[in-house]
């Protein structure tokens, strides 16, 4: 998994196995539809408290999943901070939380747009 920010979009690109076990596709959102950008220091805690999920869930280790309502997507792992952002105009999806060692830098880039 990797996070890529272009002039026009924010992309969460999943490995093929993450797509299968997480029941997710790549997430590509227009930058104009991204808001409320934050860095989350303990993303696993947030993922675990979000309610019932569909996909891969290894508590306190790794999550690649969505909530049953499909309004939140999680690609988080222990030991890494996460980039969190709200989403508009992307179906049911309202929030994405994705672990990346570059969370601070990505949040800065998104916050300055």
Q: What's the gist of this structure?
A:
This protein is an alpha+beta fold. The protein has helices spanning 16-22, 43-48, 103-111, and strands at 2-5, 9-13, 27-30, 34-40, 53-58, 62-67, 72-77, 82-87, 95-99. It starts with a strand and ends with a helix.
Structure description:
The protein is α+β, with helices and mostly antiparallel strands. The protein has one domain. It is 19% helix and 43% strand. It is built from three helices and nine strands. Strands 4-8-9-7-6-5 form a six-stranded mixed β-sheet. Strand 1 and strand 2 form a beta hairpin. The longest helix has 9 residues. The mean pLDDT is 94.
List keywords for this structure.
alpha+beta, 113 residues, 3-stranded antiparallel beta sheet, 3 helices
Name the average pLDDT: 94
Specify the number of helices: 3
Distance between the termini: 24 Å
Uncertain runs with pLDDT below 50, 5 residues or more?
none
Number of strands: 9
Total discrete domains: 1
The run of helices and strands is: EEHEEHEEEEEH
Give the neighbour order of strands across the main sheet: 4-8-9-7-6-5
Helix content range: 10-25%
Tell me the radius of gyration. 13 Å
Major sheet, described briefly? 6 strands, mixed
Structural class: alpha+beta
**Bulk shape:** globular
Quote the beta fraction.
35-45%
């Amino acid at each position: 998994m990797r996070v890529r920010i272009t002039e026009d979009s924010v992309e969460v690109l999943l490995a093929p196995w993450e797509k299968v076990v997480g029941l997710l596709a790549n997430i590509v959102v227009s930058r104009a539809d991204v808001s409320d950008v934050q860095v989350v220091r303990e993303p696993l805690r947030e993922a675990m408290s979000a309610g019932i999920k569909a996909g891969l869930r290894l508590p306190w280790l790794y999550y690649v999943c969505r909530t049953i309502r499909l309004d939140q997507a999680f690609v988080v792992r222990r030991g890494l901070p996460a980039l969190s952002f709200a989403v508009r105009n992307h179906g049911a999806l309202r929030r994405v939380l994705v672990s990346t060692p570059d969370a601070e830098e990505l949040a800065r880039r998104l916050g300055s747009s």
